[in-house]
């Protein structure tokens, strides 16, 4: 039972259902026993709050009767004592966790594999009733908590607790189904309406399981168990374990309500109590086997039937002692109805003399692909190095050098071989006159393939089934344009130049190179008819203007060439020489100016340096005694100033 906080009301009701449960069980059998287990979820984040106080009391703060968080606890071993059950269940209290899904699969796995601790009896019908109102975690969910070790499907209960809950991942649905089937346990999922759809899908993956809708307070759990058990016990399924190679088993149920399962198992439904049913079991060995065994058993019941197979593959024959029997063309004796040929002869009736060849060489000549294929493609017999073909299922014969052909597997149209308008030959349809197509599904006609100029697909495709099948690059419906083809203005330039102006690379062999693919006419001016306009530069540097029109065929054009070419004027020699001289003179002047500028900058730098040094110098004010002034002043003594 799920003891998460949402199941609080349900637990209180289950505590008072012990008497009703035992009464319901004893109405089925006098030797009933019942146990009890509880689960919540792994005690790690993000499933359970790992705060120390919350681990001890994971319920709401106002709720006092709450037990510490746990994964799975085995509460009561199987007992026939009603009081023991009531006492143990009454002592239980609710717990809690964080997320909505619970550790249901962990609990069921431990209850299934811990047989000695749970108290399962060897000869009993075993039921596990899972009561919950939530979904379940399964393999892979443990990664959310950093738990990477896969579930090992072993028992890990110590002191009534699942000890590996926080170390191992949840089991997968497949693992749980295998262990439930292995231990003959039939689960009943007693779940609330909100998760019923999930558990119904789970039930489809677990054999011999049922789903019942639990009321919101679990008051109907006893009636639910009775109804589910009734459905389980009324359906009898016979199956087997792994079969030996090349062995098949088919079950035929002999009962009032057999169910079709394709023969892999036998199922009888709606079997009433005391009703005897039987199954016919057909075992077929497709090859020789020796002492191979397998078991047949009913699901949910421990009894099994072991079947041991041995086939007698040796013929007990009374052979003639004549080594040259007439049935073997006097070239061999008979061994169990088959000719055993004398040396030098092979064949079904020893009719083939192999001479200096061996039988292996003759047989390889009956194989395709240089002797590496199947002999006569598995459709004939190799006789004297040649294939003798068998008859097909339809009564016709295989044919061909290696029996590779048959006339029954051609393409169909409207569910008729070759559309009923031809015959099949070696996998291909040969159509009657007036029909065509891979399945002879079309009448021969080219009406839709005709172009405005009355050609068929412009000569650039084939008309099949009244539809153009264009060559590579050309587009339907009439193969008129080619989107991926090279530009004809480029590819036909050399031919246009030689045909129109007698120049270019093809000048010497123009007719041989161009006359087959290009027709031309030279005009003074273009007409207004639509065509592809081209302007290209020829080998002499002139611009040629021409128009191209693609004619019927893949490489067939009509060129309309404009007589006048646009050729550039030759350069002026005088202008080139004059310009060259002027350019040289200008460059010389610029160089001289540059040199002058550099010298000026250098002198300016030196002058400024001199000025700076002059300012730093200190000169004395004294006169040089040796210095004589170059100016002499003479006064006229007689001059009075008047």
TrEMBL record:
UniProtKB keywords: Cell adhesion, Cell membrane, Disulfide bond, EGF-like domain, Glycoprotein, Integrin, Magnesium, Membrane, Repeat, Signal, Transmembrane, Transmembrane helix
Domain of life: Eukaryota
Integrin beta subunit VWA domain span: 1-315
Integrin beta subunit cytoplasmic domain boundaries: 596-642
One Pfam family recorded for the sequence: Integrin_B_tail
Transmembrane portions of the chain: 573-599
Residues in Integrin beta subunit tail domain copies: 489-572
Gene Ontology, cellular component aspect: cell surface; focal adhesion; integrin complex
Record's keyword annotation contains DNA-binding: no
GO process terms (BP): cell adhesion mediated by integrin; cell-matrix adhesion; integrin-mediated signaling pathway; leukocyte cell-cell adhesion; neutrophil chemotaxis
Classification via PROSITE patterns: I_EGF_1
GO molecular function list: amyloid-beta binding; integrin binding; protein kinase binding
Subcellular location as annotated: Cell membrane
Topology term for the membrane: Single-pass type I membrane protein
Keyword Iron: no
Family, as annotated: Belongs to the integrin beta chain family.
Record's protein name: Integrin beta
Gene: itgb2
């Amino acid at each position: 039972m799920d003891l998460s906080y949402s199941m609080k009301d349900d637990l209180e009701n289950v505590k008072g259902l012990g008497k009703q449960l035992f009464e319901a069980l004893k109405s089925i059998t006098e030797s009933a026993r019942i146990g009890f287990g509880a689960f919540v979820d792994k005690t790690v984040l993000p499933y359970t709050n790992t705060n120390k106080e919350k681990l001890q009391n994971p319920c709401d703060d106002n709720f006092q009767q709450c037990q510490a968080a746990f994964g799975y606890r085995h509460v009561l071993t199987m007992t026939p004592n009603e009081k023991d059950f009531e006492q143990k269940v009454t002592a239980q209290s609710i717990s809690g966790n964080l997320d909505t899904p619970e550790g249901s699969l962990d609990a069921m796995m431990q209850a299934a594999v811990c047989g000695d601790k749970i108290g399962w009896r060897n000869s009993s019908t075993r039921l596990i009733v899972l009561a919950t109102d939530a979904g379940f975690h399964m393999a892979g969910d443990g990664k959310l908590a950093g738990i990477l070790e896969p579930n090992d499907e072993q028992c890990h209960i110590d002191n009534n607790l699942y000890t590996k809950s926080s170390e191992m991942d949840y089991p997968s649905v497949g693992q749980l189904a295998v262990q439930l089937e292995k231990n003959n346990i039939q689960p009943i999922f007693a779940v609330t309406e909100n998760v019923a759809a999930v558990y119904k899908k789970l039930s489809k993956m677990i054999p011999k399981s049922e789903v019942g809708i639990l009321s919101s307070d679990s008051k109907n759990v006893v009636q639910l168990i009775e109804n589910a058990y009734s459905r389980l016990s009324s359906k009898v399924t016979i199956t087997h374990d792994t079969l030996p190679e090349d062995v098949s088993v088919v079950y035929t149920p002999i009962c009032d309500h057999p169910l079709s399962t394709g023969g892999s198992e036998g199922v009888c439904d709606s079997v009433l109590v005391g009703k005897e049913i039987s199954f016919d079991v057909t075992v077929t060995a497709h090859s020789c086997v020796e002492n191979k065994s397998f078991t047949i058993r009913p699901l949910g019941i421990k009894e099994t039937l072991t079947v041991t197979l041995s086939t007698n593959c040796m013929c007990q024959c009374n052979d003639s002692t004549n080594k040259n029997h007439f049935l073997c063309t006097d070239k061999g004796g008979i061994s169990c109805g088959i000719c055993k040929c004398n040396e030098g002869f092979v064949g079904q009736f020893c009719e083939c003399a192999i001479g200096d060849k061996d039988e292996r060489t003759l047989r390889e000549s009956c194989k395709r692909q240089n002797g590496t294929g199947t002999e006569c493609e598995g459709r004939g017999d190799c006789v004297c190095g040649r294939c003798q073909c068998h008859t097909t299922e339809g009564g016709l014969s295989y044919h061909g050098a290696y029996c590779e052909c048959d006339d029954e597997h051609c393409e169909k149209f409207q569910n008729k071989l070759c559309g009923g308008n031809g015959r099949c030959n070696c996998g291909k349809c040969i159509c009657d006159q007036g029909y065509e197509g891979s399945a002879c599904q079309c009448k021969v006609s080219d009406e839709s393939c005709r172009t405005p100029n009355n050609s068929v697909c412009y000569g650039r495709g084939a008309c099949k089934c009244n539809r153009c099948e264009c060559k590579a690059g050309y587009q339907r419906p009439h193969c008129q344009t080619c989107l991926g083809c090279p530009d004809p203005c480029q590819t036909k330039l050399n031919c246009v130049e030689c045909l129109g102006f007698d120049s270019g690379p093809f000048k010497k062999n123009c007719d041989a190179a161009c006359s087959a693919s290009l027709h031309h006419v030279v005009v003074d001016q273009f007409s207004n008819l639509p065509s592809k306009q081209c302007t290209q530069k020829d080998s002499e540097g002139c611009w040629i203007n021409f128009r191209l029109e693609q004619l019927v065929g893949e490489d067939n054009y009509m060129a309309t060439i404009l007589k006048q070419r646009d050729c550039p004027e030759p350069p002026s020699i005088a202008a080139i020489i004059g310009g060259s001289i002027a350019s040289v003179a200008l460059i010389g002047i610029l160089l001289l100016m540059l040199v002058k500028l550099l010298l000026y900058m250098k002198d300016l730098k030196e002058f400024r340096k001199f000025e700076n040094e002059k300012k730093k110098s200190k000169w004395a004010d004294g006169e040089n005694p040796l210095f004589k002034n170059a100016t002499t002043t003479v006064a006229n003594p007689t001059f009075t100033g008047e």
